[in-house]
Design goal:
mainly alpha; elongated
Amino acid sequence: MGNKYEEEYGKVQLPPRRSEDGGLREGMLIIRADEDCVGAAGDCENGFTPHPARAFAEIYLQPVVRSVLTAEQFMRWSKRELRLEEANLWSLVLELLLDAEQGSKYSPDAIGIADVQPHRRWYVSHLSHIQELLQRHTLLRRMNIVVRWLEQTYREGNTLLKLSASRSHEEAVLLRQIILSHLRGGELYRAIDLAVTAGDCTYSCLLNAAQMQTVYESWFHLTPLVPLFGEYGNGEVDQVWAGNTHRLDNLSQLYEDSVALSNSDEGRSAIGGLDAIVAAVLCGNLEVMEPAFLAAGNWKDALWCHLRAALVLCFTKTLMNAHHTVQPLYAGFVEKFTGSHDSWQEETARGVVQRLSERLQKNYLPFASLEEQLQMRVILQFLSPGGVDWMCITDDLYTKRIDGARIISHLLLCLDTAYNETLHSYSVQVYSNTLAIALAQYGQQLAQMPLYSTQDAMQAVIAMNLHLRDTRQRAAVYAAFLVACRRRELESSSRQDVEANEAKLVQLFCKADPVSALHDEVMRLLNQKTESTSLLTHNTVAEAVMWRAMHADSHEDFVVALREALEACVSFWLAEPHAELDAISDVSGILRRNILPYLQEKNETLGDIELIEAHFWIKFAEVRSTADEHARSTAQLDVALGGGDRTLVFQLAQDESALLRELHALTQEALSHGGALVRRSRSCVTAVTWIVQVFAEEVALSVRLATPGASVMMEQLRKVFALVEQLDGLGYIDPNLIPRQSARELFDAVRAARVACGQKSHDLLVSEAKKTAAARQLPL
């Protein structure tokens, strides 16, 4: 009976020979799933295919995120979108993670080689020795996984070999080219079929002899099998006999042939050169095979040469240690490569990786595409020892692809998830802040996506960002997303709508990530990064108050926001060279919309004096806005009086009168709250007197332009005097309190209103007298 893993994902098996689908594909560890329905939830049902940036991000909204399943899903999406190299990247990650997940289930002791007497271990099958070697040594096993992946990508990419010795079109040369191409793709059985079909007895025999045969063994049910590459994983399964007696003799002869041909004139011919390369590939002679493959300039070919040669020699070394016979020249070559010390397996593998890393970094890494660079980095990261960081992404990588941040972010997130699942010893967050940088750029892309709700995008950003363990890094991602959202929303929405949307976005991550230090850091970054042209307020301090109010999610937070808002209003009024009235209006709006509605329900821990002061600034802003509106209405009425539309004049006169009455009521309310402000700052008494000054100026304007009746004028003038008396009664115009300049401006405004009323009364009397005189002169 298979275990749960095998029942769900399928057991690792050596594929049968001459499979039409290719042996490696059938033997791969992959998750079987329905490829016809991939994408965001519900999208397939609605016939909508989401953008990859959105679909990939929403993976992390699932309750449980596993690295293996994530890599498998990303691989399928990439294939569906015909992103070949990206799909290759995810298939590489998937196979390495599946191997890591399978690692705890390998049981090399179950193979039973240790129970066999040393002098009889030559009788144990080649497969058993190789399986034990790979199951005991993780680095060699990962090298084997990478070779399988390189063979698979070669087959799927249909890449033609371009060798320096393959220019001839003769039949014999073409045969060797195709055989070599099959070997590069890990399909030795196809090369054998080709040789048999072409009637080439020599190649038919040597290729068959190079293939490792296998039988079903008793230990197969005790431990999973490591899927092998090339001729090691495509042998004929014979239930009686493995038939590998002369296989090492064949490899020995192939090594001698490869050396002899490479040093002779025959090896310089097209046929002789290809014969030498084929022999070198099969026996692992890197010195002969590498120059030919490097002529194509492909990093995958170079990597395949190194890893395949190393593994072939390591497999041979293992069999030599089990007393299998190898010819002296080949044995010496193997010993020279692997050494004779006890820990030759790990040291040999580390040496190969070191040479590979130097070569890839120097010759290929700087010039490859983004996806291929990431493939190289993943391979080197999994093959390198702990403490080596290959995933530190440089800034230039993000510019190689328009969606580079998406690919990099999800790769690093997948590796970080694997680290948390103990599938990998490397943590992308320990050595650098690459993941945070990638997520910040990716979040900005999500914020700018059309037809994607910013609140939905924020949910995805939160889900990904919570993987970051550093508070400041998470704050940087949130801040970058909010700045990008504002930039997008300001193009199509009003500032008030943008502010309301931002408040919702802020509350989303405040609830999902309730760390006060993070919220403070987000506000600090927003105040730094927000461009002056993108401010929703008229002042950076007012902007900071707005962010503080948005981030408030407790009573204490709202109290802090209230006090910051009150301090800001005072500083705005006392600003030099003149008060920042627009900023006061911004903050008063924040007080009215965001802060006071919450505090008025729970004001048991808040002094009434602060609430009264807040109401003053709210009324102060309303006085200013109403005065501006009254001035515009009065100007419109003055223009209408010069025309002949009495209906319009009547309507505008009613509006002007209503606005002046509203202004008077607001001024009275503001005066009643002014004491709280003066208690905070005696210098702010001028703010209290200023609102009376504004009312007096509006009365003067109304009298001059709106032509009210005598009774109305006197009523408005009495209101001005009453407000001044109220100021005096409250002590606001005490010479020791109010500055001389402010007092002068106040009384100049009152005097102007009185003069305007007097002048208008005089004009009315003169007009009335003229009318009376004219009436007396009319004939009866």
